Each structure stands twice: as structure tokens, then as C-alpha cells.
Amino acid sequence: MLRGRQLTIMQKQQSAATPITCRLATESDLAPLAVMHVQAWREAYRGLMPDAVLNALDPAKREITWRETLRQDIPVTLALSGENIVGFMGCGERRKPALPAEGEIYGLYVLELAQRHGVGKRLFLRGLELLAARKLGSAALWVFENNSRARQFYEAQGGETCAYRIEARDGWELARIIHEKCAIKAKPLISLTTMRMGCLMKFFAMKFLAQVFGGLGRFRAVR
Known about the structure:
Layout: H1 4-17, E1 20-24, H2 30-45, H3 51-55, H4 59-71, E2 76-81, E3 84-93, E4 103-110, H5 119-133, E5 139-145, H6 148-156, E6 161-169, E7 172-179, E8 197-203, H7 205-213
Parallel strand pairs: 4-5, 7-8
Antiparallel strand pairs: 1-2, 2-3, 3-4, 5-8, 6-7
């Protein structure tokens, strides 16, 4: 009988061997997308977010949220390994005026078994393309401040820490950090009970796309 670690390694190998395809989500994807979303949160935020919050995540409630998202004409791109959803990205106009960008990447998640195979970058680039197609010349997103893996990924794409804010939620605190060109350093985590939710990272989609289509293939934030 295969043990958990052996099974996980085998799943990762199978995922790597299966070509990743991307397409827009439809209503028929909502149930498996909700399940994948919950799994992705638990993988990404275990140890960063209270266990009670993660354990209480309900795929049925997520499905309702996703249904409303599609009804609002928000494009959601799926990454699939075979028929299995292993990642997603949603984007559109900024949701709050305080956001220092025209467009916003609402969320980008990839399951652990599909990570380190370019899936996240592929979804990210697709997000910039969708925002550019909607005439939105810049983009921003939120990341947990102490989510080092995610921050390293987005910083490699040109995001820079600019500012942060703390907000209370269900008895615990979240800190949001803005990532844009002014590059204010993020403050350190002050305690295990104070969650610094993350960085708002700003990108400039139009310049990036111009570089990609010009053959440079590398994103640089506008200075």
C-alpha cells in the first residue's frame, strides 16, 4: 500500500506528465472549482491562517460565490490537468477605489501537485492579457505578507511592496500590503495571533504585453 508521501509524489509526477490546458470557466465547472478552491486555500494558508478558519471552509458556499462571479461577467481562467482543475485565476476592474491600479487580479491559486511547472505564471500572463483586452493598463493584487512563496512569485513578475493596512475579521487580524512602484518595506509579523494578510502588488499590463509581443519575454514594473 502506498503511503501518503509516496502517493503525493506519484500525483505530482502524473500531473507534470499531463499537458496543462487553460480555458474560461463555465457553470458546469462550479462544483469542482469550489472543491479545488477550498483545497488550495488549505494548502496555501495552513500555518498562516487560523486552522478553525480553514477547517470551516465550505465548498457549497464557495460554489454559490463562484456562480455569482460568473453572472457578473468576471472572466475566470482554469488550468486543467486532463479533466482535473489544478489552478484558476480571476480578474477584472478594481473592486475598491483605493486600489492603485485600473485592474485587479482577484485571485490566483495552483494546487501543490501542479506547482513548479509554469502553471501559475501561465495564469498570471493570461490575467494581464484579459485586463489589457478590457483597456485596463495596470493591475494589482493582494497577497498575505507572510506568504513568502507567493510574494517571491509576484515580486519576480515586477511587484513591489508599497504600503499595508490591517483589518479585523472574525476575531483575528489581517494586514494587507500594497505592492506598487514606491516600494515601502513590509513590516514584520508581530505575533502568531496577528495575521498580516498580505501584499497588494501592482503590475503594469500594457508595458508587459508590449515586451512579450516584442520578443523580450520579461516583465518589468514601470519605474
